[in-house]
Amino acid sequence: MTRVLVTGAGGMLGRDLLAVLRTRPDLSVTVAARADLDVTDAHAVRDAVGGHDVVLNAAAWTDVDGAETRERDATAVNGDAVAALAHACAVSGARLVHVSTDYVFAGDATEPYPEDAPTGPVNAYGRSKLAGELAVARLLPETGYVVRTAWLYATHGRNFVKTMLRLAAERDRLDVVDDQYGQPTWSYRLAERLVALADAALAGDAEPGTYHGTAAGETTWYGLARAVFALRGLDPDRVRPTTSDRFPRPAARPRYSVLAHGRWEAAKLPPPGDWYADLTDALSAPRPGRPR
Predict the structure, then answer these.
(1) What is the pTM of this model?
(2) What domains, with CATH codes, occur in the chain?
(3) Which positions are catalytic?
(4) What is the per-residue DSSP string for 158-213?
C-alpha cells in the first residue's frame, strides 16, 4: 500500500487533497495540519516524512501582502521549510509534490508562460515561493515535482469566489479589477491533478521538474466575478470593471500570469479543463470538494 503524507492538510487545498485521497482505498494517508506538524522544524519534518512514499506539500505562507513586511517569515515557510521537506525526502527516498505559484513570474508576458520560462517575481511572496522551487530542484533532481497554480478557490476557506458571493448579498454593485489576467482554479480539481501526478511519478511515467496546475483558458478578476454572479442566477451587470490603481495593495500583482500546460501530456496525463466549466461544477456542488 502506498503511503502518502499530506502537509498543510488543514488549509483549503489540503482539505480537498484529503477529500480526493479518501476515495483511494489503496493509499495509506497521514494527515499533517499545522497543529500536527510545524514545517519550519527540520527535525520534526524529518521524522514525519520517514516511512512515506509520497509527500504532497500544501503547507504555505499565503498572505501575499503580509509578506512584504515579513519576508523572512514567509521565506521560512515557503522556502526553508520546503528545503527541509526536500532533504527529508532525499534521505527517505520519498517523492515530493510541492505546490508553488504563478507569482514566481514577473507578469509582463503576452502569452502563456511555459514551465521553463525565466522567473522574476515582483513581490516578497513570489521570492519566497521561488526559494522553495529552487530547493526542490537542487535537492530532488530525480524525485521532486513542483506544481505551480494560481487564483485558487473553493466553497470552503478564504478565497475570491466566496468573497464575491458574500458581497453579492451585501451590496447592489461591485467594482472589480479588469486589468489582471489569470486562470481561476478550483482547488478540488488541482487536488485531483496532484494525486494523479503522484501516481504517475511512482509509476515512472512523469519526469521530475515543474508542471503548471492551473485551469485552462484565461479571464480577469472582473470576468470571474461576472461568471460567479451569472452561475448563481444573479445579474452579472451588477459587477463593474475598474483598474488595479483603484485598489492599491502593499504587494505588486502580476498583470498577466496565465500559465501553459505542456508537460502534462508528456506524463501521460490529460490537460487541465476549462476554468469556466470547473467553476460551474464547483458552484453546483452540494458540499465542498464534491467530485464531478
Answers:
(1) 0.95
(2) 2-219+246-284 (3.40.50.720)
(3) 125
(4) S-HHHHHHHHHTT-S-EEEE-S-EE--EEHHHHHHHHHHHHHHHHHT-S-SEEEE-
